[in-house]
Every structure is written in structure tokens, then in C-alpha cells.
Hints:
Layout: E1 4-13, E2 16-26, E3 31-35, H1 42-49, E4 57-62, E5 65-67, H2 71-75, E6 78-81, H3 93-103, H4 110-119, H5 133-145, E7 151-155, H6 163-178, E8 182-186, H7 190-196, E9 199-204, E10 207-213, H8 214-220, E11 222-228, H9 233-238, E12 242-246, E13 250-255, H10 259-267, E14 273-280, H11 283-298
Parallel strand pairs: 3-8, 3-9, 6-7, 7-8
Antiparallel strand pairs: 1-2, 1-4, 4-5, 9-10, 11-13, 11-14, 12-13
Helix pairs in contact: 3-5
Family: Belongs to the ABC transporter superfamily.
Keywords: ATP-binding, Nucleotide-binding, Transport
Protein name: ABC-2 type transport system ATP-binding protein
Amino acid sequence: xxxxxxxxxxxRFGKFVAVNDLSFSxxxxxxxxxxxxxxxxxSTTMNMMLNFIKRSGxxxxxxxxxxxxxxxxxxxxxxxxxxxxxxxxxxRVQDLIRYTLDFHHMEGDQAEIDRYFELxxxxxxxxxGDLSLGNKKKVALVCALxxxxxxxxxxxxxxxxxxxxxxxxxxxxxxxxxxxATIFLSSxxxxxxxxxxxxxxxxxxxxxxxxxxxxxVNKKTKIVTLKGxxxxxxxxxxxxxxxxxKEEHEARFLYEGGLPQLFSTLSNLSTDLEDVTxxxxxxxxxxxxxxxxQEGERL
Length: 299
């Protein structure tokens, strides 16, 4: 049973359609990425998932329960990190953690609480309003993790974190995943999505562009860049390569075939070919390719 299941959800603000007929699912134990340009509808989608805003249509299920019918029960089993962290500014950090545990009807393990304060270097006696942006984000992370959630939903969780805290956060998240938690990560940092997520959903203008299994796609897909006065476009197409970028003396292809076939084809060409580069496909290349292809289809 999927931990997250979105079925044809939509959200309209007057005449503006922020999310349009969006459907995908996330399985238990996955580290799932959710990416797209600014204004794509990512935060709106997460706000509908958590019932912070009402959807205009479609169905949402979290942890096997319909939202919002089982809203309170579901939220007690979820950890959430918003992109914009806001708590009562006069409350001390240690009180915020205690209130979080009270909401989840948990006493909390003091040793574990101390571990989080030490791990993220948080001054527990400081008032929340006196903290820097990065320290506010760290408090939100502890609040999201301290109650051992089954599902962790994060919207730009590393914004404001230094490299050390970034590394520590993902170490904790991998531990949570190994313990059975499902992690849903929205981030503009494509490198961290590529490093930690096994699957990723691409969204643009409120619509799903695609869902990719990174463990499979990155292994089989190569980026082939050719430079020369005469580019073998027809020959590359004949072996199944897809041209994603074409300039006067340079072309870039996505290729999923065998390397022996590629090199055999290129070796039979004339000396007009000056340079050949073959590299693994990274998430940024995949991201740009999907959006460029969609833009071309619109035109």
C-alpha cells in the first residue's frame, strides 16, 4: 500500500490553476524527491497533502488514510519541515520541543533530545525569535524528527544550513529510512536529491512532467557530446540516440544503447568529428531534458 497517494488533485485560486490533475504515489520506505522550478506548485501540493489548504478536486491518501477525513490521526504520524519556519518567537527552544512531544502524546527520551541538540548545535535555552535563519531551520528539523514519524515531509529543509549541518541532517534521514520511515523531499538542490533519492517526480506549471527511478535511469543513460565541423545526426539517430542540444559545431545526445555499438558507429565516421565525450547522466541533465522536451511539445 502506498504511503502517499495523490489521485487527480487540483487547486485553483480564482482563475489561476496552481495544481492541475496531479497524480503519483510513494511507496513505504522510499526516499522520494519532488522537484520543479519556482512557482511549479510544489509547496501548494504539500500544503494540500497536509490539509493546510483545501484542494479543489481529487483524492489524497497518506499512510493508508484519506485526507482530510483522518487528518488528526495522520498528522500525529508525520514529521513536517516547512520552507518558511515560524513558531511563537517568545518560546524557548526546549519548550517548543516539549510541546511537539505533547502533541504526539510522547514523553520523549531525554538522552535522544540531548543528542539532537548536540548534533545540530542548538542552544535549547534561547528564544525562538532570537535565532538565526539556519538555527530556526534546525529547530524545525528536530520538531519533525523527535517523535519517530512514519512519514517525513520536507520543503527545502537545507535552506540556511551550513555544509556540516547538511551532512548531519542526511545522516539522520538515512537512519530514519533504514528504520522504515518514508521520506518526501522537495528541494532546489538537485545534487542532494540525486545523492539520496531513489525516485523523483518532476512538476511544472502544476502538472506532472514525469516520475523517474534514478537508480535505473542514471545507470543506463549516457550523455554523448560530439564536436566537429560535420555532426553525425542521422547516424546517432539510427542507433537510438536522442539529440537534446544542437549548435553549429556541437551536439549533445541521450543514449541508452551499448557502448561498443556507439564506438563502432563513431569509428566509421570521417575525421570531421573532432571530439567525443561520454558521461553518466546526472539529475540536472535529466531535469533540463524533460522540461526542454515539454516546452518543445507546447510549441
